[in-house]
Design brief:
There is one protein chain. The protein is built from 13 helices and 21 strands. The strands form six sheets. The protein has a five-stranded parallel sheet, with helices on one face. Strands 8-17-9-10-13 form a five-stranded parallel sheet, with no helix packed on it. Helix 1 runs parallel beside helix 11. The radius of gyration is 23 Å and the shape is globular.
Length: about 475
């Protein structure tokens, strides 16, 4: 029985950054009876899966790393994906987490059975735990567009998150469908290899300048020798990024300044007025994800590249046909179309108290109390849950705050001798109502269609305020918002 255990058993699903952060802090707190269940054969999550050419983080390296595990020798201001993956593997080894990770364990079902959670995996194995912490993340299943004829294509096709390293693009006619975050990193990397590149753009994006900056050996040595210097550098980056937040609250000054910066960048890199028109967004800046690149605009202006803004009508065996019936031959199709929004429940059945399923609960609106808990699901918490994404700063800040909050809730449960902790429905409803009200004051509400919101217009991905407010509110779980069962 849980209330008789000094150290409860804890199951963490997913060995990405959020799951590993939870594991490290549990270990530090003396709650070492945990197991991470990872579907793949390595840690890393997003950075293990995404290995396409040019993959990198759009948050500066020193801020896209744990505050308690700084890395003094990042190679670039914006690190490539492989370096981030190495960082993740290094902290896993440093904290000796591998004995607590069971690889090849894809969760298919989790059910609350009063005495705890019963977990069933794809290989048929079963495990039990007192607490369940979901660290699968909200964006990990690739999204493919629904285009007639896709299955009949005879060439090679794949998603950026499932990069085919065996396929050589040299001398091929390639089509990249999508022009968002992965595409603007990918296109400049492959443009010199391919015979011809067609880039299919549905909606133009706000793309800001991003100088290619490497840290000098001197700077890295200083960070190593004087750790306080690295901390001050991280703080500087944080403050610069946090200053962008008013843009998302429709601040006219910041919006005007950011728009001017984009237009200046576009005009400096694209001289053709017709092409500039195609690349100019017609929605407020910040409504969709703001991107950054100094190499994308030059790449799409190469003689053997074409930016196509006509919608795709169909895919044929060896070509793509646009809505104007222009047929463009293609050997390889690369889908740079992102991920399914809030997809972590796809293929997983989570059953809470009295038989309620998480899919059923979320069908009434994708939401979670304080972004981490749901009524009806005792001893279950979520990392990077609904409304914990950011448009202006590092999600690492959110992960660390959530881990601290969850840890405080577990500790309080144990201190009271309770068997289970569950958020009160009334508290969850009050929080959600206030959250949705606050989101209406943002640039994301009603100005454009993006993956930030569902078909019903509910914004379920982003936090409506700055990170300082989030960290303050998540410092400790409020026991009055929870029901403790003895």
């Amino acid at each position: 029985m849980l209330h008789r255990q000094k150290v409860p058993s804890i199951a963490i699903i997913g060995a990405g950054l959020s799951g590993l952060c939870m594991a490290i802090q549990l270990k530090k707190a003396g709650l070492g009876n945990f197991m991470l269940y990872e579907k793949a054969d390595r840690v890393g999550g997003t950075w293990r899966e995404n290995t396409y050419p040019g993959v990198a983080c759009d948050v500066p390296s020193h801020l896209y790393s744990f505050s308690f595990e700084p890395k003094a020798d990042w190679s670039k201001v914006f690190s490539p994906g492989g370096e981030i993956q190495t960082y993740i593997e290094d902290i896993t080894a440093k904290h000796d987490l591998l004995p607590n990770i069971r690889f090849g364990s894809e969760l298919k079902k989790a059910e609350w059975l009063d005495k705890g959670w019963q977990l069933t995996f794809a290989d048929g194995s079963v495990a039990h735990a007192d607490f369940l912490i979901n660290g699968m993340g909200g964006l990990h299943i690739p999204r493919f567009p629904d285009i007639p004829g896709m299955k009949g294509f005879k060439g090679i096709s794949y998603h950026t998150a499932e990069w085919n390293h065996e396929h050589d693009l040299t001398g091929k006619r390639v089509a990249v469908i999508g022009t968002a975050a992965s595409a603007i990193q990918l296109v400049p990397e492959i443009i010199d290899k391919v015979a011809h590149l067609d880039i299919y753009q549905r909606t133009p994006n706000w793309i800001m300048p991003r100088p290619f900056m490497e840290y000098s050996e001197r700077a890295k040595k200083l960070f190593v020798r004087f750790p306080l210097l690295e901390k001050l550098h991280r703080l500087q980056i944080y403050l610069l990024f946090e200053m962008r937040f008013p843009l998302f609250r429709r601040d006219r000054f910041f919006s005007k300044r950011a728009t001017k910066m984009f237009v200046k960048h576009l005009e400096a890199q694209v001289s053709d007025p017709e092409l500039r028109d195609k690349l100019m967004p017609n929605y407020p800046i910040g409504c969709k994800r703001i991107l950054a690149s100094d190499t994308y605009f030059p790449a799409i202006q190469c003689d053997h590249a074409s930016l196509i803004t006509e919608p795709i009508n169909r895919v044929e065996a060896d070509a793509i046909v646009s809505a104007d019936e222009v047929r463009r031959p293609v050997d390889t199709i690369i889908y740079a179309t992102g991920f399914k929004p809030w997809d972590q429940m796809e293929g997983v059945e989570i059953i809470g108290r009295n038989g309620i399923t998480m899919n059923n609960y979320l069908s009434q609106g994708i939401r979670a109390h304080r972004t981490v808990a749901m009524p009806g699901f005792p001893n279950q918490f979520m990392l990077l849950g609904p409304n914990s994404g950011l448009g202006h700063n590092s999600v690492i800040l959110m992960i660390e705050a959530q881990v601290s909050y969850i840890l405080s809730a577990i500790k309080h449960t144990l201190a009271t001798g309770a068997k289970a902790v569950e958020v009160k429905e009334e508290a969850a409803n009050i929080f959600d109502a206030q959250l949705q009200h606050d989101l209406q004051g943002t640039v994301w509400a009603g100005h454009c269609k993006s993956w930030y919101q569902g078909e019903d217009g509910r914004i379920f991905t982003l936090w409506p305020w700055g990170t300082r407010r989030y960290m303050r509110e998540m410092k400790c779980a409020n026991p009055e918002e929870y029901e403790f069962t003895a």
